[in-house]
Amino acid sequence: MPLYAYVCEKCGTEFEVFVSMSKKEAGWQPQCPRCGSAETRHVFKGAALIGRSAEAPPRGGCCSRR
Ligand SMILES: [Zn+2]
User: Fold this and answer.
1) How far is the centre of ligand 1, averaged over its atoms, from the C-alpha of 39 (Å)?
2) What are phi and psi of 17, to 5 degrees?
3) Please, which residues bridge with residue 3 across strands?
4) Band of the pLDDT at 45, cuts 50, 70, 90?
5) How far is the CA of 19 from the centre of ligand 1 (A)?
6) Strongest mean pLDDT among 4-8, 54-58, 61-65
7) pTM exceeds 0.90 for this model
8) Domains, the chain, ordered by start
9) Which H, E and C letters describe the chain, residue by residue?
10) Which residues contact 29 (CB under 8 A, 6 or more apart)?
């Protein structure tokens, strides 16, 4: 089961939970372990952000017009 990081919208607590694919596709939301709120948001960590920046090279370089 994949481990997902979530952040609570209410108190800002970050936590990680194991969520099965079927649960996630059904729109399941974990509860905050601190305040019990169900207003949690899935956050991507590390690798996802690095991969994204690598896919977006700077525009308007020296070779864009030739
Ligand atoms: Zn909370």
Assistant:
1) 8
2) -135, 150
3) 18
4) confident
5) 18
6) 4-8
7) no
8) 3-54 (2.20.28)
9) CCEEEEEECCCCCEEEEECCHHHHHCCCCCCCCCCCCCCEEEECCCHHHHHHHHCCCCCCCCCCCC
10) 38, 39, 40
